[in-house]
């Protein structure tokens, strides 16, 4: 079996097709421009999400010195995230070409208006392990390229000068990081291949929200909203949850709570609700607002759809109706750039699967 197997890796090694001459082209950084403070986006509360995809500096050669703030990075190339650590031909390459340790650096200044808030850096995905440093401080290593992660920067920010965020990226196969650990036919590629952003929030903030429709097919359907808090939490929490259809508020509920563990917030009396269906994928928004002394200090929004999905011995049922499933696998890899494709490419893939290939289900484990 093993000798007759034609796997992806051998195919790519032996195939002569593709743009074999394509290489990573970037301009050298000849002079570090003076960094202006990052622009502040508008927000309903003190929460600010600041994109950090532009103006990264990159080198295929990592070293302990390259993670230090005073390191001379003029020889690095300027890149934009999402970024692949090695541009490759469409076929005819060896996976060892992207298996190395590289380093990314990002200089930035924060507006003084954010001083006193908690500052986080959020990574959508780094393949395969990432050691993150802020102004030389080692924040630890995150292992795994398929899930997002965050680090708090608050205590290490220089509010009067340049800050340097450095990421040492290990893109080798490591047995301590899935999917590796045994013989596996899998191409992971490398680099900071998903978006990066800074997040500024109040010292007490909403960490996450899980909104679950309850009895979606019944007239008395409702939404259960579980809120998870982060940071320093006051003795009494004041929260407001809303179900929105665009700007229209369908239902709202407020709670005041003290002590550990927040109870779910129930949104009821919803009135007419459109069910999510494959031909009408209707979505609603749930917004949770955190108050302190009558002032809005944080908010968090997520999307939900009302639907009931069941697998039975007779087949699959969506909202009580039998539905024949037609689907495919979907890989997140692309020619030349590996997995480093921005959102517009991912959305185009979804459009092709739904509109051209007529799929109504997609296996996304790849």
Care to describe what's here?
This protein is mostly beta strands. 6% of the residues lie in helices and 38% in strands. It is built from two helices and 24 strands. The strands form seven sheets. A six-stranded antiparallel sheet has the order 3-2-4-10-7-8, with no helix packed on it. Strand 18 and strand 19 (295-304) form a beta hairpin. The longest helix is centred in the C-terminal third of the chain and has 14 residues, at 343-356.
Topology:
Elements: H1 8-14, E1 48-51, E2 56-59, E3 77-79, E4 101-108, E5 118-123, E6 126-127, E7 129-134, E8 137-143, E9 149-152, E10 163-170, E11 191-192, E12 196-201, E13 204-214, E14 222-231, E15 236-245, E16 248-258, E17 265-267, E18 284-292, E19 295-304, E20 309-312, E21 315-318, E22 321-322, E23 327-329, H2 343-356, E24 361-363
Parallel strand pairs: 23-24
Antiparallel strand pairs: 1-12, 2-3, 2-4, 4-10, 5-9, 5-12, 6-11, 7-8, 7-10, 13-14, 14-17, 15-16, 15-18, 18-19, 20-21, 21-22
Over all CA atoms, what is the radius of gyration? 24 Å
Flag low-confidence runs: 1-6, 11-34
Give me the strand/helix succession.
Answer: HEEEEEEEEEEEEEEEEEEEEEEEHE
Proportion of helical residues: under 10%
Tell me the number of helical segments per DSSP (H or I, 4 or more residues long).
2
Q: Give the quaternary arrangement of the chains.
A: single chain
Please summarize the sheet with the most strands: 6 strands, antiparallel
Q: What is the SS-derived class?
A: mainly beta
Please count the beta strands (DSSP E, at least 2 residues each).
24
Strand arrangement within the widest β-sheet reads 3-2-4-10-7-8
Shape: flat
């Amino acid at each position: 079996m093993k000798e007759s197997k034609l796997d992806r890796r051998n195919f790519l090694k032996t195939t002569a097709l593709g743009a074999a001459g394509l290489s990573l082209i970037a301009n050298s950084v000849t002079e570090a421009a003076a960094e202006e403070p990052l622009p502040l986006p508008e927000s309903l509360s003190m929460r600010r999400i600041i994109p950090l995809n532009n103006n990264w500096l990159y080198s295929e050669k990592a070293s302990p010195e390259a993670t230090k703030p005073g390191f001379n990075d003029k020889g690095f190339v300027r890149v934009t995230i999402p970024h692949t650590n090695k541009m490759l031909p469409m076929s005819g390459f060896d996976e060892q070409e992207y298996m190395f340790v590289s380093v990314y650096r990002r200089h930035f200044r924060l507006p003084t208006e954010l001083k006193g808030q908690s500052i986080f850096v959020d990574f959508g995905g780094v393949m395969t392990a990432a050691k993150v440093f802020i102004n030389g401080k080692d924040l630890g290593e995150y292992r795994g390229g398929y899930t997002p992660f965050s680090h708090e920067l608050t205590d290490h920010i220089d509010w009067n000068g340049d800050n340097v965020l450095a990421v040492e990226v290990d893109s080798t196969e490591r047995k301590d990081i899935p999917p590796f650990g045994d013989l596996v036919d899998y191409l992971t590629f490398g680099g900071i291949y998903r978006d990066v952003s800074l997040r500024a929030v109040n010292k007490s903030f909403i960490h996450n929200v899980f909104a679950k429709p309850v009895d979606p097919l019944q007239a008395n359907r409702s939404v259960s909203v579980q809120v998870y808090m982060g940071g320093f939490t006051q003795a009494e929490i004041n929260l407001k949850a809303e179900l929105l259809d665009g700007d229209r508020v369908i239902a709202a509920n407020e709670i005041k709570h003290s002590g550990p563990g927040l109870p779910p917030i129930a949104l009821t009396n919803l009135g007419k609700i459109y069910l999510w269906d494959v031909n009408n994928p209707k979505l609603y928004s749930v917004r949770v607002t955190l108050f302190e002394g009558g002032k809005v200090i944080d908010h968090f929004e997520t999307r939900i759809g009302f639907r009931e999905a069941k697998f039975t011995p007779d087949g699959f049922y969506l909202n009580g109706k039998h539905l024949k499933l037609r689907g495919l696998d979907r890989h997140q890899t692309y020619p030349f750039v590996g997995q480093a494709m921005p959102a517009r490419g991912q959305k185009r893939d979804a459009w092709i699967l739904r509109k051209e290939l007529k799929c109504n289900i997609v296996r996304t484990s790849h």
